[in-house]
Design brief:
Number of helices: 12
Largest sheet: 7 strands, parallel
Protein name: Glyoxylate reductase/hydroxypyruvate reductase
Family: Belongs to the D-isomer specific 2-hydroxyacid dehydrogenase family.
CATH topology of the largest domain: Rossmann fold
Order of helices and strands: EHEHEHEHEHHEHEHEHEHEHEEHE
Domain D-isomer specific 2-hydroxyacid dehydrogenase catalytic: 14-330
Strand content: 5-15%
Strand order of the largest sheet: 8-7-6-9-10-11-12
Number of domains: 2
Low-confidence stretches: 1-9
GO molecular function, one term: glyoxylate reductase (NADPH) activity
Pfam families: 2-Hacid_dh (PF00389), 2-Hacid_dh_C (PF02826)
CATH superfamily of the largest domain: NAD(P)-binding Rossmann-like Domain
Radius of gyration: 22 Å
Length: 333
């Protein structure tokens, strides 16, 4: 039907929680009968506006910075049938509540795998070779003459790399690290994944063994009750003093106080984080006072092409859900 005409499917009313890349918005606006209400800002939608915006809508397109909990679902009411998140992670969605109400969920895996893996490798190299520290030395006049041990770090050649969560992104990271001459890959997770591990001859080990034997630990798992706070005092205590820790998954997988202590006391060599709790990390946070901690502002998937593709996939998931068709990427609850 014609939008707004008698008998038009009000069924197609959707709320979009942010100004997403233009290609995504275009996909929605060009869909027949889809009525879009947009929080037209670069900044997150305030809670009150989110609650008002979802009321009576059939579809919701959200970002990982939007907490979609019981309160939001109640505000939306029984009309809400589809939630599409422009993210691969879904720890911001109250899945139990969503499932209870029979709401379908779309997400955007695969399309951000390469960009996130690339950033993970960049962060690992920046951390282990002390790039931010080195840049600072050049600018501050700390660079004097060539010195044999000055600014030395740790290399990947002949190393053991431990990957926590050998899913899409974990495999893509291993694939990129392998040509650096990594000697051995270890991985851990809820269960062995021989089909994922074969390419790297990666060995499935318990978390404690991964901590003890890895020269580099890369966290690429999903945030779940099982992984929350998993990298804690005990974990860092088991790691080598020369080991480098990198997290590009979710901040809450790491106990940040324990990480700070491990870095400050030299229990581990360095850490690189693309994710923190909270996000953004306050500028006065203790981690930011450490030379051996590199913190990035959650830019894992931040290439123009990837963000555009994510937006289009989120839109396509939403539209398919509204039409009662199979989604390109549905999260099976």
């Amino acid at each position: 039907g014609v939008p707004g005409a008698p008998g038009a499917p009000a069924a197609m009313a959707v709320f979009v929680t942010r100004r997403i890349p233009a290609e995504g918005l275009r996909a929605l606006s060009q869909a027949g009968g889809c009525r879009v209400q947009l929080w037209d800002s670069e900044e997150p939608v305030p809670r009150a506006e989110l609650l008002a915006g979802v009321a009576g809508k059939r579809g919701l397109l959200c970002l990982l910075s939007d907490r979609i909990d019981r309160e939001v679902l109640d505000a939306a009411g029984p009309s809400l049938k589809v939630i599409s998140t422009m993210s691969v992670g879904f720890d911001h969605l109250a899945l139990d509540e969503i499932k209870k109400r029979g709401i379908r969920v779309g997400y955007t895996p695969d399309v951000l795998t390469d960009a996130t893996a690339e950033l993970s490798v960049a962060l690992l190299l920046a951390t282990c070779r002390r790039l931010p520290e080195a840049l600072e030395q050049v600018k501050s006049g700390g660079w004097t003459t060539w010195k044999p041990l000055w600014m030395c770090g740790y290399g990947l050649s002949d190393s053991t790399v431990g990957i926590i969560g050998l899913g899409r992104i974990g495999q893509a990271v291993a694939r990129r690290l392998k040509p650096f001459g990594v000697k051995k890959f270890l991985y851990t997770g809820s269960r062995p994944k021989p089909e994922n591990a074969a390419e790297f001859e990666a060995e499935f080990v318990p978390l404690a063994k991964l901590a003890e034997e890895s020269d580099f630990v890369v966290v690429t798992c999903a945030l779940t009750p099982a992984t929350q706070g998993m990298c804690n005092k005990e974990f860092f205590g088991r790691m080598k003093k020369t080991a480098v820790f990198v997290n590009t998954s979710r901040g809450a997988v790491v106990n940040q106080d324990d990480l700070y202590d491990a870095l400050a006391q030299g229990k581990i060599a360095a850490a690189g984080l693309d994710v923190t709790t909270p996000e953004p990390l306050p500028t006065e946070h203790p981690l930011l006072s450490l030379k051996n901690c590199v913190v990035l502002p959650h830019i894992g998937s931040a290439t123009y092409a990837t963000r555009s593709t994510m937006a289009v996939l989120a839109a396509d998931n939403l539209l398919a859900g509204l039409r009662g068709e199979p989604m390109p990427h549905e999260l099976v609850l």
